[in-house]
Amino acid sequence: MGVHRVAVLALDGVTPLDLSIPAQIFSARSETPYEMTLCALTPTVRTSVGFTVAAAGGPAQVRAADTVIVPGCEPPGRPPEAAIEMLAQVRDQGKRMVSICTGAFTLAAAGILDGLRATTHWQYIDDFEQDFPAVRVERDVLYVDEGEVLSSAGVCCGIDLCLHIVRRDLGAVTANRIARGVVAAPHREGGQAQYVPAPVPVAGETSLSDTRGWALQRLGEPLTLRLLARHAGVSQRTLMRRFAEETGTTPLQWLLNARLGRARELLETTDHPIDHIARDCGLGTAANLRLHFRRALGTTPTTYRRTFTR
Prior knowledge:
Elements: E1 4-9, H1 16-25, E2 34-39, E3 44-46, E4 52-54, H2 59-64, E5 67-70, H3 81-92, E6 96-99, H4 103-109, E7 117-118, H5 125-131, E8 136-137, E9 143-145, E10 149-152, H6 157-170, H7 172-181, H8 209-216, H9 225-232, H10 236-247, H11 251-269, H12 274-280, H13 286-297, H14 301-308
Parallel strand pairs: 1-2, 1-5, 5-6, 6-10, 7-8
Antiparallel strand pairs: 3-4, 9-10
Helix pairs in contact: 1-6, 6-7, 9-10, 12-13
Keywords: Transcription, Transcription regulation
Organism: Nocardia jiangxiensis
Pfam family, one: DJ-1_PfpI
């Protein structure tokens, strides 16, 4: 992958956290090809909390970018016509378009999301669906990947989406390295629920993070609900409830995602045979690994290795 220009377009009222996520993930690193520029229609932009930020680039840099990312604004509203026209032109040029949180309102206003699946912050999703009936709204997801148009749900889900983009571009090893640098979860599948009803333990309960860490060290072993529940010291029913509360997904789906992530790292960093990788990451056989790879990534382990092996 050659030099890849990323333009982060900040509009008036931009949410600071939405803005900082892509700026951090796509900042210049020796192991990545990204050149990130903070862009705006004016030299400075007022954020949703009152302070202003200075933009290093303008419309010219947005039009020259390979990927354009639009962070959310609060409250979401109709973007300036100049922004709408510019984004529509950029999309017509085949550039990759990304929204974070309520930035989906801006992409939708430019017609970029028409006929596509998209998501936004759960608090605004009813308004989004009403305002843009041509968009196929996904409510209970962290992010949506429609190829060259991607959108994330509320605020911190932008981290998941940006890491997903890095993973698509450069592979799991690089994405995980960046995730460790920003102290973020290396990989959360886009299909998880964005609204977790109990993100912290209630009184008298403890987090399952220790159990998840224990499982990650044993992905090559048979791991059942019974074993996970025994390690956590809870019943299987309580394990499933608490797992959904803390992660937005089920224990078995979480395990599958973790095993696929491990398989991707092994494919990128070793020359081990496919059947050995399937065994080492807990998927059993090469055929089973191929099946899940095809379902999750739309490709084969061999093609993935050829794409991301350095």
